[in-house]
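Problem: given the chain below (215 residues), write out its structure.
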Amino acid sequence: MKINFKKLAAILMAATFSLMLAACGAQGAQNEKSSAKSEGTTKKSKIVVAYFSRADENYGVGVITEGNTSILAKMIAEKTGADLFEIKPAKAYPKEYKPATEIAKTEKEEKARPEIVGTLPDMEKYDVVFLGYPIWWSDLPMAVYTFLEKENFKGKTIIPFCTHEGSGIGNTEQFIKDTTKANMKQGFEMRGATAQNSRDEAKTEIENWLKSIGY
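Solution.
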């Protein structure tokens, strides 16, 4: 039998070309899957923990060097990898507890917006804001409203957390939503004495809460 070498070579070349196309197609599909998987696992929300906290003399814990809310804010930032921003009034409150509460009460009655210091965070960088504060007279400290009204929270998610000595979080979640029109997630509350004096317990509760809301 006479073999047509030209025809055989053409058949072999066609088969080789088909195999190469199939391999390229499979590799391309695999690359697309890997890329999609990579994008899905690496894209993370940009988070900032903004908080107001007061040290000095506090109810239930005496004179302290770090505010109760500050302790929780740093735990949350450490666990989530978030940036930190402290909301600081330009004029400090008295170191003594009672005079500080009297000023806070007057500010609330007058709906004051105390000046705050420091460069505000660029909210364009963040998707999620953990907002921390003590409960003062069943409300946010007025300096927190100053912060909320200076920033643009459109399209952002705010997750509140607070310290108190018996009142719980109260209606502050609704106050925040009304002020910012942001999306809200379940807040967290803890007694200031627990945050200050039982830090292992506080850390465990914070971690459990973060896990429950997906962090």
